[in-house]
């Protein structure tokens, strides 16, 4: 008997929406779309959804700081899975509004381009080359940008967003794949209290937060050494402000190893022994885009 899952995420037609449907392909899911990432998180915290889907890192723009801060400072939801999905952005609007007498799209008629700031940043080369005169406006999601363009016909506004959002709002894709780099991927996290077991991956990761002791010179070196001499690979280490005192930071570390080993718990115990505070954010399966495609097609 299948059980319907309840999943909170950003609006329909966003990259989050597309990525979520790949991870949960073939499953019965009740989607709970929210305009703000805070509402996505809080939906799961309040028990209104079983999971939240959080875009956390992008190839071009790096970490999504707001989302990371929410996960670290505002909520305590364990990471249950991670996967990557191509972030393909398109220029969206009404072709009929911009077509000149020769049947070509005339970008000189564009007055404004609207999108999420991360998506906008992924397409700067295109915008500077093709529409340098247009005003730019940031909104909460790419799908919201597309909706705004839909609701303002004749304004000369365009959106940057997904093909799904264009289809949902009956708008045209004026230029496909306008991102500056072809290898533009976004990494997503699935957070919630229940383990994710629908798909299997032999590759597991563990994410931790480390606060260094104030009175231990060389503590960061000691932390890294605890992993290095055990040959534990760190796929990511990032310093972020604690928001408590200027100059105080914690370190977010992604580790390519499961907690169900001898080496990793020993490394964590070693760094705790020197006075570091360690918070485990999750131990979870990690999926590549190709892996999920194969599992969905299989």
Quick structural overview:
The protein is of the alpha/beta class. The chain has helices at residues 15-23, 37-45, 65-74, 95-98, 117-121, 124-130, 142-150, 163-168, 219-228, 263-273, 289-297, and strands at residues 5-9, 29-33, 51-58, 62-63, 79-86, 90-93, 112-115, 135-138, 157-161, 172-175, 185-192, 204-211, 234-241, 249-255, 277-287. The record marks 186 as: Essential for prephenate dehydratase activity.
Q: Which residues form runs of ≥5 with pLDDT under 50? A: none
Total beta-strand segments: 15
Domain count, please report it: 2
- Please state the average pLDDT score: 91
Tell me the β content: 25-35%
User: How big is the Rg?
Assistant: 21 Å
Largest beta-sheet characterization? 10 strands, mixed
CATH topology of the largest domain: Alpha-Beta Plaits
Helix-strand sequence: EHEHEEHEEHEHHEHEHEEEHEEHEH
Structural class by helix and strand composition:
alpha/beta
The total of helices stands at: 11
Shape field: elongated
What is the CATH first-level class name of the largest domain?
Alpha Beta
Distance between the termini: 21 Å
Give the % helix.
25-40%
User: What would CATH call the architecture of the largest domain?
Assistant: 2-Layer Sandwich
Look at the structure and name the CATH superfamily of the largest domain: ACT domain
InterPro entries: ACT-like_dom_sf, ACT_dom, Chor_mutase/pphenate_deHydtase, Preph_deHydtase, Preph_deHydtase_CS
Pfam families: ACT (PF01842), PDT (PF00800)
Protein name: Prephenate dehydratase
GO molecular function: prephenate dehydratase activity
């Amino acid at each position: 008997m299948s059980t319907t899952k309840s999943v909170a995420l950003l609006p329909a037609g966003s990259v989050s929406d597309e990525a979520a449907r790949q991870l949960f392909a073939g499953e019965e899911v009740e989607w709970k779309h929210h305009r703000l990432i805070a509402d996505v998180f809080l939906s799961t915290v309040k028990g209104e959804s079983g999971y939240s889907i959080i875009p956390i890192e992008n190839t071009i723009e790096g970490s999504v700081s707001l989302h990371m801060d929410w996960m670290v400072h505002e909520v305590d939801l364990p990471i249950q899975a991670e996967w990557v999905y191509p972030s393909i952005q398109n220029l969206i609007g009404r072709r009929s509004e911009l077509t000149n007498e020769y049947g070509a799209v005339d970008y000189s008629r564009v007055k404004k381009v609207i999108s999420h700031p991360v998506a906008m940043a992924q397409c700067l080369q295109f915008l500077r080359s093709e529409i340098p005169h247009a005003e730019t406006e940031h909104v909460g999601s790419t799908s919201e940008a597309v909706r705004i363009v839909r609701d303002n016909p004749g304004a000369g506004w365009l959106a940057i967003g997904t093909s799904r959002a264009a289809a949902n709002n009956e708008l045209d894709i004026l230029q496909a794949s306008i991102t500056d780099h072809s290898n533009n991927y976004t990494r997503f996290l699935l957070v919630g209290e229940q383990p994710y077991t629908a798909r299997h991956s032999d590759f597991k990761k563990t994410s931790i937060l480390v606060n260094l002791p104030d009175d231990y010179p060389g503590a960061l070196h000691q932390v890294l050494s605890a992993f290095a001499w055990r040959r534990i690979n760190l796929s990511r280490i990032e310093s972020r402000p604690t928001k408590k005192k200027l100059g105080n930071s914690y370190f977010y570390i992604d580790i390519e190893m499961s907690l169900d080993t001898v080496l990793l718990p020993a490394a964590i115990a070693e760094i705790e022994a020197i006075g570091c505070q360690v918070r485990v954010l999750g131990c979870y399966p990690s999926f590549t885009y190709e892996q999920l495609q194969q599992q969905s097609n299989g």
